Amino acid sequence: MENKDPIFLRQIIMEHYANPTQKGLLKNPTSLYIHQASDSCIDDIHLELEIANNKITSAKFDGIGCAISTAVTDIMAVEIIDKPVAMAIKIIDNYLNMLFERKYDETMLNELIAFINVPKQPNRIKCASIGINGFLKLLQEHEKTQK
């Protein structure tokens, strides 16, 4: 994503916060679920993944969260749908590398680049990673069951 203007990045975050496309659980018996809650803020979300033939067919979430946690969870859900599990893990790892100021590949981030300035506000890192860590745990657990 070329445009890193802070106003433009904030618009991405606010759009996904106000109108998250992946909010609402399907509650299918085959879905993988995890609950993520913060002990220091409002973030309390449930995450759901549907995986078929080692490919993510659905990524959903529900619950209460601040603008950052809601937006990043929604954007990541969009990013990993239709991806093989290994690629989704790679996208998540790359995003977390950006968040923790390690080497990352910007070309893999798309709208996730909107969170590039979060490391400047360390108190927001947990918000920007709570849903992501949940998706990662679900994907790692799925990989373990496939071996």
TrEMBL record:
<dbReference type="GO" id="GO:0005506">
    <property type="term" value="F:iron ion binding"/>
</dbReference>
<dbReference type="InterPro" id="IPR002871">
    <property type="entry name" value="NIF_FeS_clus_asmbl_NifU_N"/>
</dbReference>
<dbReference type="GO" id="GO:0016226">
    <property type="term" value="P:iron-sulfur cluster assembly"/>
</dbReference>
<dbReference type="Pfam" id="PF01592">
    <property type="entry name" value="NifU_N"/>
</dbReference>
<feature type="domain" description="NIF system FeS cluster assembly NifU N-terminal">
    <location>
        <begin position="11"/>
        <end position="127"/>
    </location>
</feature>
<protein>
    <recommendedName>
        <fullName>NIF system FeS cluster assembly NifU N-terminal domain-containing protein</fullName>
    </recommendedName>
</protein>
<dbReference type="GO" id="GO:0051536">
    <property type="term" value="F:iron-sulfur cluster binding"/>
</dbReference>
